[in-house]
Amino acid sequence: MPVMDHISFSSLSMFLKCGEQFRRRYECNEIIPPSASLARGTCGHKSLEANFRQKIETREDLPEEAVVQVFSDTWDAKSQEVVLSEEDVGTDSPVKVLGRFKDSGVGMVREFHRVISPKVQPAPDGVEEKFEVIFHGDLPKLLGYIDLRTESGIVADSKFVSKTPSKDNLKTDIQMTCYNLGHQVKHGAPPARLAKFFAIAGKNPTTAVFEEPARDPATLDRFLCRIEAAFKALEAGVFQPAPNDCWWCSPKWCGYWSTCKYHP
Ligand code: SF4
């Protein structure tokens, strides 16, 4: 593979999870339509972004119905692309299933807005802040966007999930290590803390907030070693398939499953 000028963290993250998935997506340009839960998360994210962007200036949250409206409008457009799995559909009609996902997303947005948003004051330029990590040698630049940086220096990511995450979720999250690195490069210092905000689906949606100290230098070094190994594999055109026993190598989580020659 020719040496790239840059790589986004999201595509690098796909490569780290499964080289074959990366090859299908970025080498063969096979774009898989989003699942309903992924689309719900994307639309939820848009609604939070609309609120937090304006809150930099106003220091006040939008009315709840305005945030729900952003979710609803985004969902109505995005849900046209969604491909439902057999597990999603069950015995219901696709229209009913999509309606169910929309309703659950609305409930999650409301709960997030009620419980988490009032405690968050984004810093100036602290919403979807771009960063670039430039390495020595002819390695590609690493590009990314930090979801949210608060006035108190916390770097945070928001997720819309179906199940309550485990307590270790933030500790082992490589995306948060990358945000930490991006903050350090952009602002010359580590973030005050790292946080993940969750809206959790359910009959009565709930939220969770996990917080951790910034990553220590040894963790950042290991992350950089991992990136360097990934760049070498990419340059050599080595697209290692995901291990057999990982959760994302499954029909539910990988859109290439039905045509993949490597899956278990
Ligand atoms: S099915 Fe498994 S090995 Fe194949 S592309 Fe998906 S994650 Fe990778």
- CATH class reads Alpha Beta
In N-to-C order, the SSE pattern is EHHHHHHEEEHEEH
Mean of pLDDT: 93
Associated small molecules = iron/sulfur cluster
Quaternary state, please? single chain
Fill in the CATH topology. Answer: Lambda Exonuclease, Chain A
Q: What's the count of strands?
A: 6
When the domains are counted, the total is: 1
How many DSSP H or I helices?
A: 8
At CATH level 2, the architecture is: Alpha-Beta Complex
End-to-end CA span: 27 Å
Describe it.
The chain has 264 residues and is of the alpha/beta class. The protein has one domain: Lambda Exonuclease, Chain A, CATH 3.90.320. 44% of the residues lie in helices and 19% in strands. The chain is built from 8 helices and 6 strands, in the order E-H-H-H-H-H-H-E-E-E-H-E-E-H. The protein has helices at 9-17, 19-27, 36-58, 64-78, 86-89, 94-115, 174-187, 217-235; strands at residues 6-8, 122-133, 141-150, 154-161, 193-200, 206-213. Strands 1, 2, 3, 4, 5 and 6 form a 6-stranded mixed beta sheet that branches. Helix 1 packs across helix 2 (19-27), helix 3 runs parallel beside helix 6 and helix 4 runs antiparallel to helix 6 (94-115). The protein is globular, with a radius of gyration of 19 Å. It starts with 5 loop residues before the first strand and ends in a 29-residue tail after the last helix. The model has no long low-confidence stretch (mean pLDDT 93). The structure holds iron/sulfur cluster (SF4). Iron/sulfur cluster binds next to helix 2.
